[in-house]
Specification:
The protein has about 150 residues and is mainly beta. The protein has one helix spanning about 30-35, and strands at about 5, 10-15, 20-25, 45-50, 60-75, 85-95, 100-110, 115-120, 135-140, 145. The strands form three sheets. It has a six-stranded antiparallel beta barrel.
């Protein structure tokens, strides 16, 4: 079953397992801000303009999405001279969708720490990792911690 991207003008299918470029990517600080100030009830999102092929349009078109980041990780890319540190992020699309749509994104970073390029990938249901609660939850009645069932 496919998901749908909703906009005021159209309703277009979101293609699972599709990759596309991010145009003029937002700074990493926007992702950290959204993660530190957003809550489950009042999520903070980051706006990104991506290839239209992510949502079943032509790759010549672009579409703006709002991503609620759930995970940022540093990845090492080996090259001939020195290791390069880039970033991956996960998040879900904020909007009026019939189901939650998770994406995986990649930021290529210049030596100066600025983003050189970015891309996103629509994940299949269950592929996301940033929403799994792994830290034990505190139970006030028993005064103990327990790990949530997966």
């Amino acid at each position: 079953m496919g998901a749908w991207l909703m906009s005021s003008e159209q309703r277009v299918p979101v293609s699972r397992d599709t990759m596309g470029d991010v145009f003029d990517p937002p700074p990493l600080s926007d992702f950290f801000r959204a993660m530190s100030t957003g809550t489950e009830v009042n999520p903070e999102s980051v706006e990104m303009t991506v290839d239209g092929n992510i949502v079943g349009l032509s790759s010549q078109e672009s579409v703006t999405i709002r991503v609620v980041p759930t995970l940022i990780r540093v990845i090492t890319v080996e090259n001939d001279e020195y290791p390069q540190y880039d970033y991956e992020f996960e998040g879900w699309l904020l909007g009026n969708y019939p189901e939650r749509i998770h994406i995986l994104g990649y930021f290529q970073v210049h030596e100066a720490g600025t983003i050189a390029g970015a891309s996103v990938h629509v994940l299949r249901p269950g592929e996301e990792t940033g929403t799994n609660k792994s830290f034990p939850k505190y139970d006030r009645q028993t005064k103990s911690y327990f790990k949530p069932a997966r």
